[in-house]
Amino acid sequence: MNLPEKARKLDEADVLRAKRADFVLDDTVYLDGNSLGALPAAVPGRMADVVAREWGRLRIRSWTESGWWTSPERIGDRIAPLVGAAPGQIVVGDSTSVNVFKALVGAARMAHAERDEIVVDATTFPTDGYIAESAARMTGRRVVAVDPSELRTAFGPRTAAALVNHVDYRSGRLHDLPGLTAAAHAAGALVVWDLCHSAGALPVGLDAHGVDLAVGCTYKYLNGGPGSPAFLYVREDLQPRFDSPLPGWNSHRDPFGMSPRYEAADGAPRGRVGTPDILSMLALEAALEVWDEVPIEAVRDKSLALTDFFLECVTAYLPAGRVESITPVPHAERGSQVALRCADAGEVMDALIARGVVGDYRRPDVLRFGFTPLYVSFADAERAARVLAEVISTR
Amino acid sequence: MNLPEKARKLDEADVLRAKRADFVLDDTVYLDGNSLGALPAAVPGRMADVVAREWGRLRIRSWTESGWWTSPERIGDRIAPLVGAAPGQIVVGDSTSVNVFKALVGAARMAHAERDEIVVDATTFPTDGYIAESAARMTGRRVVAVDPSELRTAFGPRTAAALVNHVDYRSGRLHDLPGLTAAAHAAGALVVWDLCHSAGALPVGLDAHGVDLAVGCTYKYLNGGPGSPAFLYVREDLQPRFDSPLPGWNSHRDPFGMSPRYEAADGAPRGRVGTPDILSMLALEAALEVWDEVPIEAVRDKSLALTDFFLECVTAYLPAGRVESITPVPHAERGSQVALRCADAGEVMDALIARGVVGDYRRPDVLRFGFTPLYVSFADAERAARVLAEVISTR
């Protein structure tokens, strides 16, 4: 069976196949959903209603009548099952960077003062490292940057908290969330997980694995739209000890009491800060409708099948040695993307995009291809590899 | 001349009268624009295009091709003339609370360590006080809360920075920005001004008065939509010393270099943090189109005329002693709202809203009426006072 035919069979057998119709797509092969998810079909109509009716007609009344005020918790609870969290632990709002700051300062404040180190995975997305430096500086700690392979042994009696990416944004490597969380706990430390590249792509199991705090973005595999608000998870039993560095009026126990003295709300709303960004918030809520009745396990199965198949096609179509996958082969170590090192990667990606295959380029030499199982087909994967082979062979 | 007739004459003479057509309005008298501005007519079409074409069709390409990446600075420069700032000093993004944190920590870090006090106006909007406490705690300072009337004498050799509201959210009192800024500078301190209730309502003159840093929201008199992103002003000559507590990748000198080491960008972008919230950002940009060719001085003239006329109508229509204005009479001390103390204020406001006059209620006893000169007419002011008199007299 040739590869296009195999793709056809795989697509026919795909239990998520019908979900593709829930997105606005065209004849592009869109493999950049790990940067900006495609537009869910429910969003334009919902946005038009939010703007014209909720803002335009109801105006201020919408804060209560349209449920704007409680949307950060409500949408947090909608995300919760996708990352294995019971309700009441996730709140949506602010950017990922701001939430990393809240989570890391909050975690450091839960630790004894003699624990003076914040451990960060050294290959992290840059903002996590920068914010960790700021959190360390502002809580009297220092950052220790450690290669992810050495994280397990880096946790010790001086570790206040660790900040680890679940999936490396560059290589697509999936880190061992259960094992590293247990190792940190064994050392008496807390862990903040960055789920930007795993939320909506694979089962996370926050509650099951006893994760302490987590943050994640919603514009990648959750398709919330450009710069849609991020989320913050604080495990229920830690919430009373969560001491936010950004205690805005939205996290007050009685926000409309307008008291000059701050008293933190109970529960997930303690992670709120200022007035939430309602247009983006409600676009995200509409985007999350595509998850109705989608088990995250089915998404994971298809994701692995897609990346396996893409790698199979790359191997079959490309001359040996022209690209090198830096994405781990074992499923237990792979997220939902494939990263290929390649000479002239920037120009190669430009040529791919010109031919309707959209991935992205990360300096100096990486082609990134993200596979969003809800709307990427096996035929897409085959075509992407085929076009990549054409581009490479004509250079 | 009776008051309805006077309203008609004033509306006929109003140079901003035509601007009303730039908003989506109905037969409600909407006097809550100091909480959530009305919908500008340009927004729904622009939002539909942002969602369907920029996100839906161009997807990731819009970060460059649709100007998403540079929107925080571009929109900052659009706001700049409204608050008297030259270009290159304002950036848009995050909530007001988050920007208060950036500004206050940034200001404190510019001060000598022996300046150990952050002075805050004691009547401030709660979030400013809460965030000031956090900024003080995290920079080794303490907060000194002072009644605005005593601010001038509160600045001294221990003052690192002050945080002052330009207009009091409750009473509508306008504080003396030029005088207080000069007094702080004379004491060697920096001032952060909160412009939430003045941006778009009156001339601020940031550059002219040598203001150091400022923050403001965009969903009140700037009509940016619910929870639209706030702005941060850092005066040009202070920008090199601005050391943000939230150094996200968007404020890096080379954001796509993905360097593990943070190097702050020059200029206004140094105030950026994470990925900006594009839907809300571009709704705001469309909302700002209503300001084309509107001098802020004309807005101020009409604002004062509106609040004067409303108070005149209240005095004429209401039985003496039933309400008490806590908004200053002198123009130099008045923002763009009128606050009336009133028995059973919560119920009175409910009754007003039921009769199509929308203001808001602030505990325990304040009726707030915001006057947005771009879309509120003198007839609106007269009707609001008349309906208020009806409600009060039937109680």
From TrEMBL, chains A, B:
GO terms for molecular function: kynureninase activity; pyridoxal phosphate binding. Signal peptide: none annotated. Keywords: Hydrolase, Pyridine nucleotide biosynthesis, Pyridoxal phosphate. Pfam families: KYNU_C. GO terms for cellular component: cytoplasm. It comes from Planotetraspora kaengkrachanensis. Its EC number is 3.7.1.3. The gene is kynU_1. Its cofactor is pyridoxal 5'-phosphate. Catalyzes the cleavage of L-kynurenine (L-Kyn) and L-3-hydroxykynurenine (L-3OHKyn) into anthranilic acid (AA) and 3-hydroxyanthranilic acid (3-OHAA), respectively. GO terms for biological process: anthranilate metabolic process; L-kynurenine catabolic process; L-tryptophan catabolic process to kynurenine; NAD+ biosynthetic process; quinolinate biosynthetic process. Pathway: Cofactor biosynthesis; NAD(+) biosynthesis; quinolinate from L-kynurenine: step 2/3; Amino-acid degradation; L-kynurenine degradation; L-alanine and anthranilate from L-kynurenine: step 1/1. The modification N6-(pyridoxal phosphate)lysine is found at K220. It catalyses: L-kynurenine + H2O = anthranilate + L-alanine + H(+); 3-hydroxy-L-kynurenine + H2O = 3-hydroxyanthranilate + L-alanine + H(+). This is Kynureninase. Homodimer. Pyridoxal 5'-phosphate binds at T96, S97, F125, P126, T127, D128, D194, H197, Y219, W249, T275. It is an enzyme of class 3 (hydrolase). It comes from the Bacteria. Belongs to the kynureninase family.
